[in-house]
Amino acid sequence: MSGEKDDAKTGAGWPAVTLSLDRNRPGDTSVRAAMWPTLKLDTDERWFDELYVWTEGFQPGTMQRARIQLNALTKAFVLLEREKVRRIGVTLSFGTVERCLDLVTDAFDAHRFHTHRIVVLLRGQLDRLRSPYRVQSFIDWLRSMHVPVGYRLSAPRVSMELRAIDLVQPDFAKLLAPASKRPEFWEDVLLEARVAGLRTDRLIVAGIETREQRALAVQAGFGFAQGSAIRRAYDPPSIRTPPTLPPQGAPEAAIDDTQS
Q1: What is the Cα Rg of the chain in Å?
Q2: Over the stretch 36-70, which tens digit does the pLDDT of each residue have?
Q3: Which pTM does this prediction carry?
């Protein structure tokens, strides 16, 4: 998943009946999504819009998470095909890549004319990987197609993710805004990222919700940002098939041809 539901304020619901842990209560569960614009802090240049996905009502297992992420990847490519977005970012966990490598690469192979407009954020825990080489080969394969590969930092400190950073060698990285209001704390985070080998000009700080946070991010020297104080999230554009004229006497409703 891209993250927890508290990280986003809006989201268009996707049916989650087949993903629910309790098939008898499908109404209590949902997979939700929002598009978060990613902008350069000093110029407001728009880099990409991240398709951010989370669940409500249940905690997905490894294979459930993989199915959700694969569905999101397919929808991201459809958004590109239909020119609903200029450039899009998607999140894939290490577990999804390890267990569903063929399905993931098939999705990219099926949309090769649009791979130059997608960026991939990887996340996860290396300790749970049985075959790190599968993730490494996937990263190399993406780079052979000139797809930017990033890493989502989730540990409290950048130094706690050095092994994952070493594996991914990310072209960019994303982390949540520090909770502190002290400029020195924000500067320390950026310094730690630089020491870890991350490009600070390609470091995305997410969760910028106030003008004060934006000012701290600019002062510290972060390259890009996400959050309501940068640009508000919006619901993913509709990708329902446009209505066509059906045969006489056989009207049909428009359908979403990307549902899994």
Answers
A1: 19
A2: 999 999 888 999 999 999 888 778 888 889 999 99
A3: 0.83
